[in-house]
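Section handout 9: paired folding examples.
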Amino acid sequence: MSTQPEHPTLLIPGPIEFDDAVLQSMGHFSQSHVGAPFVATFGETLSMLRKLFQTDDPASQPFVISGSGTLGWDLVSANLAEPGDDVLVLHAGYFADSFADCLQTYGAKPTQLKAPIGSTPQLPEIEKALKERKYKLLTITHVDTSTGVLTDLKPISELVHRVSPETLVIVDGVCSVGSEEIEFDKWQLDGVITASQKGVGCPAGLSISMFSGRAIKTFQNRKTPPASYFASFKNWLPIMQNYEAKKPSYFATPSPQLIHALHTSLTQILSRPLSERFAAHREASQKVKKAVADLGLKQVAPNPAEQANGMTAIYLPENVTVPVLLPNLLKKGVIFAGGLHKEIATKYIRFGHMGVSVTDPKRDDIGRAIEVLKSGLSDAGHQKA
């Protein structure tokens, strides 16, 4: 049984429910951030991230920096793009707009390739765009948290390497790492950015990323210095290399408690094959999506091949409103998220199903949430046609 105080089950697309041991790690006694015990923990954490991202290339480099997933956009924009560089941003929802804004802030020229709401850009149109202009980077939101749309990384990366091999393939994996398959080396990815509070299963506060040797070389060959101090690879690259080599190093103070929590979470994740973890998320996802269909409801992402495994975005019946439904679900002990995409925000809700809510067989978070959703919709007057 959990030792956590009784609380409503948090089933939004992050932050998620956390394992007791992870939360207990947050209560670790105070340590020096340059002392040998903490340096060893941080070094092991970075090495475990290589296994999570599935890279054994010594030229690639993991980064763990205090901040949110948003900091990942700055790491990419400040270090890999220079003023005037063209960047192709694949748009599958709200977060592509934000990534484009960040790139523009640093002087890059983002071009958004927008898909209809609930879908993702298709290979022919991506190929056409790549042939029309030389892009320094191509960015992909792996799972757009606003729509629940999953973009298939492998064929896009293959396309980029075939049509525009100098273009770096950058993935916003904030809502995918830990719940969706990512093979960094095999798929020839150049950067994946994420955060601690979603599929990785650790409290919020850490920006986590992996960059390829090719991306690091792109940074090293810059003609202009990075326009950020805190997000600069110049400052962080030697720190991460030193920590991974178990050498004390300092640029900005990390959070020892959050690093301990991440170390615990990664230890749990890697205690069994990653294939089993991803299979558990697919199974839970199918259970949720079947329940949605059985209720006569539609998903924001209608194509099964483009539906995320760690969350589901659900259109509400016309007679049910978000401000009525969500408080009712809260009273029943489950927290879902409202809509985020500005064009449809009032029409749908989001159900997060990742991490321990999916992988811990002792928990019935998903099954109970489905029943709560059914009863909440019934209370609001919805009856399946």
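Moving on to protein 2 of 2.
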Amino acid sequence: MLASVALAGCGSIGSENATDGAVQAAAVDGAIEKPNLKLGFIKLTDMAPLAIAKEKGFFAEEGLNVTLEPQANWKVLLDGVIGGQLDGAHMLAGQPIAATIGYGTKADLIAPLSLDLNGNAITVSNKVWAEIKPTLPVEGGKIKHPISASVLKPVVAKWQSQGKPFKMGMVFPVSTHNYELRYWLAAGGLNPGFYTDGDVGGTVGADVQLSVTPPPQMPATMEAGTIDGYCVGEPWNQAAVQKKIGVPIITDDEIWHNNPEKVLGLRKEFADQNPATTAALIRAIIKAQHWLDAEGGKNRPEAVKILAQPNYVGADEAVIAASMTGKFTFEPGDTRDAPGFNIFFDKFAGYPYYSDAIWYLTQMRRWGQISADHDDQWYFDRAKAIYRPDLYLAAAKKLVADGAIPAGAVPETDGFRGEQSGFIDGISFDGKQPNAYLAKFPIGLKKGQTVTAAGVK
């Protein structure tokens, strides 16, 4: 009842040997070791694969009895997985990466499956929107998108002259939202600040002050004036529209086209000790992802009803549907087609690419969470330890053999995406050249630079 887990090319992964061959599936044999599982989640629409796997019987089909438990915030969720109170969780992609490299909390976590692509947006308060809207170009009677963060520079400068900082919220220091917000601000010429050792604020040299707010509390925190905008997943941008307290200014797909988002996070020890259970868990979630994207999203209305239940997201159906069914509303009267706003299965959304992990690591270094330089091999080795396409392939290939998903939905790859464009600043990303990528940014740490409270040196 043990697994023999083998990854192609057991040596290090790098630009010289990363293309030697496709990642091989782990070999998993035996009966499920732990049929009763508890998984954590945060009340966001991108937890949908877990809810669908539960409600549509995919967990049960795989012999699993799964309890889904909402968590108060990302820190509580992370601690629950590390401490064993949760067997796994809907997790920020940066959380297993940060834990494994020892940023914040040290623990060996893995990500054997990516839950989705896209799904976030940046919202500003009505007060901020009123200042910038008159300056924005119009196309076809509507504001032209994407909107650069450069439009905020006059507002930030004016407020600073009045002694008032410009403040924005994100959900966690190692969240996708933090890095997307920082990326957007920096692309527009605004410095979002740097982290020093032991500093979770990351405000050294900042033009815009960023702070942590749990996702469901974002609208109320902005309405109270504590923050002037935020980056969060749905339905909490659409909630601001519904409450008429703010306007989503850009979606994350406009910042980085088809960016990887949440992951299934597990303790490495759990996966090692429960290989058949892990494979069954991944299979059930892949089936849910497939259901969510089937036939152009025909099941999304049903998914909206499920997510609206109080034990899952607990928001109004209309608010969830505003982004989950292929539309996105920026402000009243400006609803646009957004068929790719939430992608769960298509475009190989579930495959945990090494290059995705490397992108997060580069942003941690860019902003000082990784305090010193590392060579490219360091990035490759960390990605290989955390993102586990071998485990994903073990599950996915069985589903292909069983006829549950099409063979073309499983990529044959060395674990790296090709060079990626589609970033708002026009900078391309090659996961096999992390240091060369970091050198491209006008704002961000360069080779040899460190951060102290006094600034970058």
